[in-house]
Each structure stands twice: as structure tokens, then as C-alpha cells.
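HUMAN:
Just now I want nothing more than another pair of eyes on a protein record. I would be glad if you read both lines and explained how they fit together. I have put the entry right below:
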Amino acid sequence: MKALILAAGYATRLYPLTENFPKPLIEIKNKPILSYIVDKLKPIEGMDEAAVVTNSKFYDVLTKWAEDSQKDFKNIKLKVFNDGTNSAHDRLGAIGDIEFVIKNDALEKRDLVVIGGDNLFDAELNEFISFARKKSPNVTVGLFDIKDKKHATKYGVVGINREKRVISFQEKPKVAKSSLIAMCLYYFPRETVGLISEYIKETGKSDTTGGYISWLCKKKPVYGFVFKGKWEDIGNIHSLCKLDEHYCQFIKEVNS
């Protein structure tokens, strides 16, 4: 099994903090977000490699992180891929980046866990993986109830039935049907990996993972696993401030 961490965005909403520094390497309590994510992968049976896909702008600094961090993740080989983009204007999008790594790292025959590089959560991944393996060869999506329908409109809003099958998926709707959202965490069994290229060819879209899941739900069963505990999507400086007081001071300095 392999993990793919999405880190090719340009995080413009966090400027100037991320103008010349990748968001996944922002430190929370003196530890990069990426390191927290890879820590979550360590206990998973069969997990032997974690690929990080980034862009030309941040490739060197992320490669340095991987080289320096490899000693801390002895059983998981770290690899960094450069998608060749240089700005938000020519980015491949999340699905485009997933397809890029699949083609460049021969992942068609590997089960794949995909995680957004700005995801922080305190739950362990073993329950998610166990659930997803039982639902294989179908895709499983990581879900979180943020308890706020208005706030949920910023994300992909998901509906599931008693069997945990996804029955609806709204990508950033104006009005959310529920407060259950997709948290950019996916389990793609090897049998489904090739469907990503099919989606891009059929729709011409390669931006959001939500668009892909919405398309896939209409063709095949997709299941949702609801995480408990805490979860944070690092979308802006205020979400950082909630996690580390250091960034509250940064806000004051920027606004002064």
C-alpha cells in the first residue's frame, strides 16, 4: 500500500505566510504539518511508501524535508514528485496531480491512500483502513461532522445511508443538506485507480477531488467513514491561530 499526500497547491489564502513557503511545511507546535500526516501512516500494516506531490516552486524545499525526515520514518520510503507547475494559474488541480503521480510512479497496481497536505486530525487511521478494506474494491471517503451547516458550505457536503454508502455529494453548495463533510482523505483500491483518468477524459475536469467523487457515486458504490475526535483544515491564518498561538501574533503584525 502507498500513500499520496497532495502538496502542490499555492495556498494564496495564506499569503504572505505561504508566498514563498509551502503550506504543508508550516509548523504547528514546532512540527511540520507533513510530519504529523506521515506519523499517522506509520502504524498502518502494509504501508511502505509515501509520495508527496508538489510544484516546481516548492520542490526543492520539500525534497530537503523528505531527506531530513527519512530517518524518522524508517519503514516508509518518502518520495517527492514535481508536477511541473509554477503558479496557481497553471496548476494541475488535485485530481490532475493524483493522475500525474499514478502515471509517473506506476501506481495502477497499488492500493492508494490519498491525503490532503493541510489535513490535521487526532484520530488514528487504522479504523479507516480496516473499514475501507472491507468495502474494497469500492472507494472510501474520510468524513467529519463539523456540526455547522453554514460552515459546511465551504467543503464537499456528503450524505450517507445506514450502510455508510454515499448517497449524495454536494461540492461547496450554497445551502448544505447536512454538516457531514469530506475531509480530503480517500482510499482508492487498485481496481479503481484507473478510473481517475477515465473521469478526466470524460469530463475534462482535473481540479477538485469532490468533483471526482460526485461523478464516481453515479457509477459505482462509494462509502464514507466518519472520523471522531478533532480535525482541522488549514485554510486560512485564523485556522492556524486556533492551533498555534504563534500565528495569532503573525496576524497582529500583518494587520498593524
Observations:
- The two ends are 48 Å apart (CA to CA).
- The first helix runs from residue 33 to 41.
